[in-house]
């Protein structure tokens, strides 16, 4: 019987199943970019340039090196060589397809026999101080610790237990030789009085297992150290010392054991942790500046709207002058702290020149309010974390927009505007949207009551101060949570 086309080998079949995928994503510390899965390799590119885009490869992970996969929400975690990389994918459906394809290829690696089997050399067996059989038998059987369970993703695919890549299969009734990746073999060492065992770094944990049994080897977890608690590490040819919250944990290396790979992995994870902490620190400082900017802009808005309120009816020019001067002082304070552009010159031209020209004052005040509002709209996040953490620039813009709207409702109430209901509804929609952005629930009833009170009687200065205070407290709770 003839067939059309040549038959595919197992390796070719695996390649055909691994369709190329590319999605928008963010890698911790490195910012926005593109995550690509092609030909059994995961690559992450950072995109640079505003007009002429260019891509720079910053991360590459071969599927053959993958030790574990995890997926939680839009976050995909890939563990290889003891280091876990976290990718935040733009769309949920994209991470679904990527996780499915990666998981499928990892499973194929475990199930499909290789055409050519590699037999470990005696030299590789001696690197870990354990024989090939003892590695197979030494797969840990203990339950994971509580801390490990908290750090594990909701979905996981784990391969390469015991620090080595072990594959089995049967071809025509014979067992396939086991294949060991020597670069991932655990390090033979001893710790305290637990005797000889193995030391390894995996999933951001340093673990020491005591090895027991002469014929059937079993491993028992005796020490687990999270990368989050490690201050520093040092080593020589005989020992590895890990400083954990000012306490030293010493592991004695067995003759011929090497910790170079282990040390590289731990130092790489420590560097990533340090960069992450620095980024979070920078983001926290930016958040504090954003909050201070929002408060300062709202202070100025109060004074500028008070000028407009004072221009209705009999004008008290001395009171107008006080509000104009206060707005100018608040603006100068913000510019001194480099929180707002000095080019805006807020409050400086309200009463410029001789006399008091009503139309000119209106024109200058409206221009100042618009310039501040537009400035808030130009704020940028600054780093990859700022957009994901709250409060961020979008939160501040929403807060200022809501506060402007409230002041406009107050002004409309005083001048007798009969069409304020749409604006009031818009205000509460803004607060609801802001609370959802922050993942919180806004308590809006006190503000509704304050607005009803303002509209039911002749507006007084005390009533205006009260309604502003209610919204200020609401925004403070949202932005400081």
Question: Mind explaining what this structure looks like?
Answer:
By secondary structure, this protein is α+β, with helices and mostly antiparallel strands. It is 45% helix and 22% strand. The chain has helices spanning 10-17, 92-111, 122-128, 132-137, 146-151, 260-310, 317-336, 358-377, 384-388, 393-415, 421-438, 445-456, 461-479; strands at residues 21-27, 31-38, 41-48, 54-62, 66-72, 75-80, 83-89, 155-158, 170-171, 174-175, 187-191, 196-202, 205-212, 218-226, 230-235, 239-244, 247-253. An 8-stranded antiparallel beta sheet has the order 4-3-2-1-7-6-5-8. A 7-stranded antiparallel beta sheet has the order 14-13-12-11-17-16-15. Strands 9-10 form a two-stranded antiparallel sheet. A hairpin with a 3-residue loop joins strand 1 (21-27) and strand 2. Helix 10 runs antiparallel to helix 11 (421-438) and helix 10 packs antiparallel against helix 13. The longest helix has 51 residues, at 260-310.
Radius of gyration: 32 Å
**Helix content range:** 40-55%
Which structural class do you get from the secondary structure elements? alpha+beta
Shape: elongated
- Please tell me the total number of domains: 3
Largest sheet: 8 strands, antiparallel
What are its keywords?
alpha+beta, single chain, disordered N terminus, PH-domain like, 7-stranded antiparallel β-sheet, 8-stranded antiparallel β-sheet, 3 domains
Compact overview of the structure:
This protein is of the alpha+beta class. The chain has 13 helices and 17 strands.
Write the layout of secondary structure elements.
Elements: H1 10-17, E1 21-27, E2 31-38, E3 41-48, E4 54-62, E5 66-72, E6 75-80, E7 83-89, H2 92-111, H3 122-128, H4 132-137, H5 146-151, E8 155-158, E9 170-171, E10 174-175, E11 187-191, E12 196-202, E13 205-212, E14 218-226, E15 230-235, E16 239-244, E17 247-253, H6 260-310, H7 317-336, H8 358-377, H9 384-388, H10 393-415, H11 421-438, H12 445-456, H13 461-479
